[in-house]
Amino acid sequence: MTAKTPFSIFISHIHEEAPVAKALKEWLQACFPGHVSAFVSSDYEDIPLGKKWLAEIKSVMDRSRLLITLISPASFERMWIHLEAGWALGSEIDVLPICHTGPRLANCRPHTATSTASTSTLTDSVNVLYLLLRAGLGCPTPCRRK
């Protein structure tokens, strides 16, 4: 019997929101141990010092099944958030924008026009994400949840 490959998630964020992205990564992996692998580009465990940053991003994006985009008023103004979401959409990777710290759904455009976005509190968004992943991964019993 071969081991099941974890569901790979790419968490797109701006540098200033790295702590939010890393906390989400740790939470996902704690909730679904062995079932979910999350990538955060600002985490030196994911891209060790000395690695070619863009090549690593491309390699992980190619393996990912879901891109979570952390959208805030600051991140919405940055190019990389939109570039990564466009790359994912062009590669037919599901994109889940999570709007937090202020923006409304109307501000989560243009790349969210083809995705359902969450504009409630970050806690509510994470709870919905948990339930969707639990159902999608077929976890028969409640996964560990912090």
What does this structure look like?
The protein has 146 residues and is an alpha/beta fold. The chain has one domain: Toll/interleukin-1 receptor homology (TIR) domain (Rossmann fold), CATH 3.40.50.10140. Helix content is 39%, strand content 16%. It has 5 helices and 4 strands; from the N terminus they run E-H-E-H-E-H-H-E-H. The chain has helices at residues 18-31, 53-63, 73-76, 79-90, 122-137, and strands at residues 7-12, 36-40, 66-71, 94-99. The chain has a 4-stranded parallel beta sheet, sandwiched between helices. The longest helix has 16 residues, at 122-137. The radius of gyration is 15 Å and the shape is globular. The N and C termini lie far apart (31 Å).
Notable traits:
4 strands, alpha/beta, globular, 146 residues, Rossmann fold
Mean pLDDT: 77
Number of strands: 4
Distance between the termini: 31 Å
| CATH overall fold name | Rossmann fold
User: Taking Cα atoms only, what radius of gyration do you get, to the nearest Å?
Assistant: 15 Å
Secondary structure blueprint with pairings:
Blueprint: E1 7-12, H1 18-31, E2 36-40, H2 53-63, E3 66-71, H3 73-76, H4 79-90, E4 94-99, H5 122-137
Parallel strand pairs: 1-2, 1-3, 3-4
